[in-house]
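Final report, results section. Input specification for complex C-07:
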Amino acid sequence: MTVDMSQFLETFYEESFEGLDIMESSLLNLDAGAADEEVINNIFRAAHSIKGGSGTFGLDAVASFTHVLETLLDEMRDGRREVTGEAVNLLLQSVDCLRGMLSALRSESELDQENIDALHSELEDMLHGGAGDVSVSEKVEDTNTGSASDGSGWQIFFRPLSHMLLSGNDPVRMLKELRELGELSVEVDTSTLPVLSELIPEESYLAWNMILTGAASRELVDEVFAWVDGDCELIINPIEKQADIAEAAENNNDDGVRGELLNDRRMESSDRRKSDRRSASASAGESTSIRVGIDKVDSVINLVGELVITQSMLGTLGEDFDMSKIKHLTDGLSQLERNTRELQEEVMRMRMLPISFTFSRFPRMVHDVSQKLGKKIELQLLGEQTELDKTVIEKIGDPLVHLVRNSLDHGIEAPADRLAAGKPETGILLLNAFHRGGNIVIEVKDDGNGLNTKKILSKAIERGLVSADANMSDEEINALIFLPGFSTADVVSDVSGRGVGMDVVRSNIHSLGGTVSVESKPGVGSTFTVKLPLTLAILDGQTVSVGNEVYIVPLVSIIESMQVKAEMLNYVAGKGEVFRLRDEYLPIIRLHEAFGVESKVMEITEGLLVVVETEGKHVGLFVDELLGQQQVVIKSLEENYKKVEGISGATILGDGSVALIMDIPGLIRLSSIQPDLRQSA
Amino acid sequence: MTAGSTELQVNNQEYSVVELDGNDQTEQYLTFALAGEYYGVDILRVQEIKGWIPVTHIPNTPVYIQGVLNLRGSIVPIVDMRLRFNMKREEYTPLTVIIVLSVKSEIHERIVGIVVDAVSDVVDVQNDGIKPAPNFGGAVSTEYISGLASVNEQMIMLLNIDKMLATDDESEVLPDKNDPEK
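Structure output:
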């Protein structure tokens, strides 16, 4: 009987990548040197599943590679091998290598055979040398088990747990497979079979005592049961007691582990499922699907139910309405408002994921980079459970990586320098995420040397980014690092320092509607602060009117709105209008000109100025009137049309009409080009 | 396995029946009037027809982009066909309608509304009755006409809407200086 396995292949890849993630994070936990048995077990289990799966799907390269890995882990698990930093590094490399192999297989591209072979032999070397004598003898057994016990066989006791059938495993199939391995005699144990009236057809009550004679190896027998590992009681013993002593030792050893594992595997299988689910969403990075907790879905369904009730109530009310029922109507409407608001919040909550999905990649990165740089760095993560929109989570990863690398490379000093400066040898890098006023704030903080303002300034002058006689405050100088083409690293490393970093970080964060700023104290450290909107789907906006059109100005960028008096206005020849606000002169953008709308209000003093701030610039937007503040749902213009300069999207107002949402930086760009266009037109 | 292969055969037969049908297929077109001429669009591309309602103007776009409209939660651009084809602008009347079309490009499918003088009819056109468009000096560049069909002595120009409403096309095809109003 053949089953089309290809349909499960994708699931296998997905699970394997999850497994690798678990291995990686567990390996990083091992770093401390003290080997926690549970952690090693975790790693071992993940490796074991990958091996089992890859064997089943005929991915021999992966299977044989994982096999060596597994043997090494097995020794660690039994305490026969010490967990050294060297071993952990090798295992981490192996995880990377496996990930590469699996991605290559998935995309059907070439395997990096050289790398695989190199690591493979390195693993073999570690396995043979360095370890205790036990592992040497095990190697001997390995070859023995391969050739199997000649003419002997196995005594197998197999009792599926009652739920095993639900997992889609068929004992009959397994018995058939066993039969292919040699001569099989089977005895059924029906002792737990209940009377027919109490029998649940979906559960398994049987157990089998089997004797398999033939030259089958232990591995082959194990493979038959690989899929039900943890879902059954399984005892496998060799029949021939006079078999090779070494082999018996191995079997006992293995059985010992197995016996131990039987119980805790059963308990862990549920834990594991939970942790699988959590880690699963981590791999959802590129996919467009999202895993949502059933409680969230249920609460949405509840709310929809309430909404339907409200709707039918209002419907009944509308059938024969007279003014005496006006109170019922207002009650109903306020109920409707509450329902919709709750529903909106719940649905938004579905898209929220904890930021730990982004943070989880950093322990490994910090580990690798600090080793490469020869620095001692401790990574601290705070606020990992802070939730933000899935889209934001996906896009904030790269900018954060840049910031972290920057801090590792430029921020934290080498141990010797740190000691010389009277600081502890180990530098601290803190990633902190928290909510503040409708925004998510992510801080990347190091206790390094801080930004070198002198160096930045001289570099900026050298690159012609500022004039040599510029008189700038430290904050202004620090902000220069976000300019394109800026890097002060003395040596261009492959970690950072190619000068493409910070401006890319800034533009990426801007595209998410966020901002980034830096604070630095010489010798004490620097803090990069990223501020992001909670969601990309809803925006707090101020509606303004210009002529007959209504526009939305994002509330976050508004500083204040005011009516200006004539004496506050100034005209700069050929450059347009400015007005004085306290001690600053701010340029005025006439929205009706920028957007080509006919407006009755032409005098600045008759309309209103909305003062907005973006990228450190302040600008006054001239509008006819302020209408009100409201939350608006952002709709894409690009979906059916294309990007329009100065407009970031559109929304639908209460009356069903469309209002455009302003993109303030784009608008400033637009209006700085506009005068020339108008002149030439 | 035997069951599977019979099924396959059945499917094959059904498929070939459809193919036989396609040899002298008729297709349906929605026709509309524009400055006294009749044009047709593939009816399968028509999402809906609605009366003219005021739209929201989008700044700094070609004149023929009238603006955007809320179509059950989607923001849909509205193209005035008269302006698209450099014809004289007409005041909108109660007959003026918006035909909402689905436009396909290499990247994705978009929804676009076009403003026309009036919709007239749905006609059946036989595939072999479609003639290639000659290069005539009409208002509409032949680039956007996939063919001519004659129905009840009436000539209908069949439009290639994918080409006509492609967004990257607009600036080159209709520079503002060609606007007849200027």
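The interface with chain A takes residues 54-61, 65, 67-70, 73-77, 110-112, 167-168 of chain B (CB under 8 Å). The helical segments of chain B are 2-22, 81-84, 161-164, 170-173. This concludes the modelling results for the funded period.
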